[in-house]
UniProtKB/TrEMBL annotation:
<keyword id="KW-0378">Hydrolase</keyword>
<feature type="signal peptide">
    <location>
        <begin position="1"/>
        <end position="22"/>
    </location>
</feature>
<dbReference type="Pfam" id="PF00877">
    <property type="entry name" value="NLPC_P60"/>
</dbReference>
<dbReference type="GO" id="GO:0006508">
    <property type="term" value="P:proteolysis"/>
</dbReference>
<keyword id="KW-0564">Palmitate</keyword>
<keyword id="KW-0472">Membrane</keyword>
<keyword id="KW-0449">Lipoprotein</keyword>
<keyword id="KW-0645">Protease</keyword>
<dbReference type="InterPro" id="IPR038765">
    <property type="entry name" value="Papain-like_cys_pep_sf"/>
</dbReference>
<dbReference type="InterPro" id="IPR052062">
    <property type="entry name" value="Murein_DD/LD_carboxypeptidase"/>
</dbReference>
<keyword id="KW-0732">Signal</keyword>
<keyword id="KW-0788">Thiol protease</keyword>
<comment type="similarity">
    <text>Belongs to the peptidase C40 family.</text>
</comment>
<dbReference type="InterPro" id="IPR000064">
    <property type="entry name" value="NLP_P60_dom"/>
</dbReference>
<dbReference type="GO" id="GO:0016020">
    <property type="term" value="C:membrane"/>
</dbReference>
<feature type="domain" description="NlpC/P60">
    <location>
        <begin position="48"/>
        <end position="169"/>
    </location>
</feature>
<protein>
    <submittedName>
        <fullName>NLP/P60 family protein</fullName>
    </submittedName>
</protein>
Length: 169
């Protein structure tokens, strides 16, 4: 079967959309995160350089709008946010896509997750999402509805879509 240019373009757009990062609804009242409380907890948690650097990175990127494929302060997606953090903070090159990022590092049991671990979610058919675990069931990520924020992993949406934790040293 021979594809026309239009058919090929439609196919590429469909694949692009189906593999996008996606974030769930952030307007669930039970899923609200007390950002000020987490900010205070993170600022007082100075046990590691990684903690300080990641928190500072979050403060710089906080509320940056979501943009699929984005890698700037004008707009960033979840895997771009994670890739930039690794490059700037840890001087480590990691893959660009959430799918490829989900294969790096070491799988970690949910109960053994630590600050800075990558948390992954399956948010739809062929749709993955990634963020950084913080503490107290919170994670930072680029949400498609709110931009770079901190969310609760135990909110109904994120708890239902949770997939895996990975540690990248």
């Amino acid at each position: 079967m021979k594809h026309t240019g239009t058919q090929t373009l439609v196919t590429l757009v469909a694949v692009f959309l189906l593999t996008a990062c996606a974030s769930g609804p952030e307007n669930n009242p039970r899923a609200k995160v007390n950002i000020k409380k987490i900010d205070v907890q993170l600022e007082s948690h100075v046990s590691s350089k990684k903690t300080d650097e990641l928190f500072h990175f979050y403060k710089i990127w906080h509320k940056t709008p979501y943009r699929y494929g984005g890698t700037t302060h004008k707009g960033v997606d979840c895997s771009g946010f994670v890739q930039i953090a690794f490059a700037q903070l840890f001087h480590q090159s990691i893959p660009r896509t959430t799918h490829l990022q989900s294969h790096i590092g070491t799988p970690i049991d949910y109960d053994d997750r630590q600050y800075g671990d990558l948390v992954f979610f399956k948010t739809g058919f062929n749709t993955l999402h990634v963020g950084f675990y913080l503490e107290d069931n919170s994670f930072m990520h680029a949400s498609s509805s709110k931009g770079v924020i901190i969310s609760r992993m135990d909110s109904p949406y994120w708890a239902d879509t949770f997939w895996q934790v990975r540690r990248v040293n």
